[in-house]
Structure formats: structure tokens, C-alpha cells
Amino acid sequence: MSKLKAAVVGLGYWGPNLARNFQASPDFDLVGLCDLDTRRVEKVGASYPGAQRFTALADLFQTAKPEIVAVATPVATHHAIAKAALEAGCHVLCEKPLASTVKEAEELVELAEKRGRNLFVDHTFTYTGAVRAIQGLVEKGTLGDLFYIDSVRINLGLFQPDVDVIWDLAPHDLSILSYVVGKRVTGVRAMGTSHNPRNFNDVAYLDLEYENGLTAHLHLSWLSPVKVRRMIFTGSKSSVIFDDLEMSEKLKIYDHGVSFDVSDVEKRRQVLVNYRRGDMRAPALDNKEALGTELAEIAAHIRGTGKAAALGADGLEIVRVLEASQKSLAKDGAKVST
Questions:
Q1: What is the rounded CA–CA span in Å between residue 319 and residue 101?
Q2: Alpha-carbon span 98 to 94, nearest angstrom
Q3: C-alpha neighbours within 13 Å on the C-beta side of residue 286
Q4: Could you tell me the pTM of the whole model?
Q5: Contacts of 2 by beta carbon, 8 Å cutoff, 6+ apart
Q6: Per CATH, the architecture of 126-287+318-337 is what?
Q7: Which candidate, 146, 162, 165, places its Cα nearest to that of 211?
Q8: pLDDT band of 266, cuts 50, 70, 90
């Protein structure tokens, strides 16, 4: 099959990673790079002589004629750039979160459908070996009934100029949970505090309720002296800890469980708790770069031979949770339905 023509818009932190993977992919031909900053375009473009360089979207669409455009710009610009790309007849891969409001995200999903184009969201973690292994454990019932999920994503900075800590860090965890659990978030409670002159929340806690009764807790911070990227999935049969900072043992499965005997609860007025403790194992994982896997699956999706893990509808659900979190913060942590 002929390669799909790809372009990257936004060459700050993440854009160069997208460009590198498009260039290395057997499915894509990197034909264009675009950024408002001429120096960035020239610097990144020096590594890809086959890609034309632009500082204006209209010129990119007219001259390079990409079939798919990757958007890696600040959140507030996602809607306008993705909309322009869809209207130009391109498929779109948008960095998360998809948009800055539910209304904007809904418009992009509807426009993609109307134009017959694919809208993908760069939920990179859903393409990692670790997250796919966790999803497999849940799907096979290895963990039993999921009791709760606890996540800690904290570090010292980087403070973002346009979004608070929830919009910056929570999309990572929310995309993982959506993929693993396969259920919608129905309610959100959010608490946050600000310690900076802009009054952006730099520490936050989110409590999520899912449609099957599962709960999850997210701890987010830009002020921690240490960097932590850890998620705990606790089930009735076993539990798994996902530590993304671990190089060799990102997943640890604990054969520990707990069961409750309530058959005689009316007579005894108590619940008998049975604990089971077993071994711990760290399974071997697929260590392929997630972006490479993502682009391969996106190409298959466009060609009709496969399905990508994160589409526009998935990105819309994440934005719903983020917007509900904002409303909960404004109501001092009151529960807000999504």
C-alpha cells in the first residue's frame, strides 16, 4: 500500500516525537512541519529534509496536501486547528485533551463524522505494553471484581501557562482508566489548591464514580519534591501496581485477595473477612515505543484493516470529566454528574 501523507502542527515538546515516529513508520510519509515559531520549524525540519516547512496552516494544507495532521499545540488551540484540518479533508490525530470545552469536543466529533474523516486522540498510554497488560488482566477476570483504583501522578513542575494541574496531568490517568475499565465516569468530586500568583490549581484530588459502581481516586501535583507515576488496581482475587518510572518491572501482580462472608450477617451483626496472601510476579511486557504502535494502528484504522484504541468519542469523554471537575471545584468539591 502507498504511504499516507502526514504533517505535524506544533513543534514544542511533543511535536518532535510525533515527527520522529511518522518519519520512522513504514505506513506514513512525513510531508509537512508547521509552527508559528520559524526557529522551531527550521530546527526540527533540519532532521527531516523531505518534509516541507510552514508557519501558516493554510499553506500547509494547500502545498503539502497531508492526509493526516497531528496537532501538538496548546489546549486552547486544539479546536481551531483540528477543525481547520478536518475541513481541509484531513484525518486528525489530536494531542490530549481533545479540546478545552465539551462543546468544542462535541463539534469536532460531529464534524469528523460529517466529513467522513477519522478523529484520533493521542492517548499514548493506551498503546503501551503495561496498560494493555492491565486491561487484559481485568478482561480475563484475573483481578476478580475491581474494588477501587488509586493513582498518584506528582512531580515538581512543570507549571503550564494555559491550564491547571488537572487539565495537565489528569488526562493521562483518565485515558488509562477509560481503556482498562471500559466504563463511563458518571460522577466527579474535585478538590484543589493554588500556591502560585496565577491562582491555577497546582495540587488536586479527584474522586471518580463509574457506571458499574467502581470508584477511583487521583492525586495530582506540580509541587511534589519527588516524581511519582503509580497506579494501583485492587481486586477481589489479586491486585496490580503499575509504576511507570520502573525500568524493568513496571507491573507487579500481587496474588492477594479478600472476600466477605455475609451469609449470616443478620444474626452476627458483623462481616467475616477472609484474607488470602500469595506470591508477587512481574510479567514480561511489550517494550515497543507506544507512539510507533499507535501510528501503526491508526494507519490500519484509516485503511479499514484494524481499529485504533482512542477515537474522538474517547477524547470527548475525557473532556466531559475535566469539565465536570472544574464545576466541582467551583462548588467546593460537590459531586457533579458527567
A1: 7
A2: 6
A3: 14
A4: 0.93
A5: none
A6: 2-Layer Sandwich (3.30)
A7: 146
A8: low
